[in-house]
Design brief:
homodimer; alpha+beta
């Protein structure tokens, strides 16, 4: 069994209205030091034993479902299988 | 200027309907190896120069706004300031 940590973030060139809204709220709360906020998705996916190549599997799942590759980037880390 | 990476995740004891929905979709797409999916938020926060203690600042922002500490946990990593 393997745990894969996946990070899906908006591309740098894409505006992040949600991040801007959070930054605005933080400023109203007095946290004016905050200069930028970008918000993305963090997924923990547990994958059982499989014959398939893990990298191919994870890339496929990201590109078909978990990330919108037109506006999002993804990266992932594989935790030690246990 | 410092970049802080913040991970907000549902507590283990809390049901994750969004994660279950994604797992179901992955299974329909043929990814039956996937045994569990948990979805959280990943934030990148850029903090300008400040006199305030960074840990205190980040914890306050998480506990007041970024995480719902009743059902969510948070952790963060500070990237080298540049």
């Amino acid at each position: 069994m393997t745990k894969v940590k996946i990070y899906v973030t908006l591309r740098e060139s894409v505006l992040d209205p949600q991040g801007s809204a959070v930054q605005g709220s933080l400023a109203k709360m007095g946290y004016n030091e905050v200069e930028d906020v970008r918000i993305g998705k963090y997924l923990e996916v547990v994958i059982g034993d499989t014959d398939r190549d893990l990298d191919v599997l994870v890339k496929e799942m990201c590109e078909k479902l978990l990330a919108n590759t037109v506006i999002e980037d993804y990266r992932y880390e594989v935790e030690e299988a246990n």
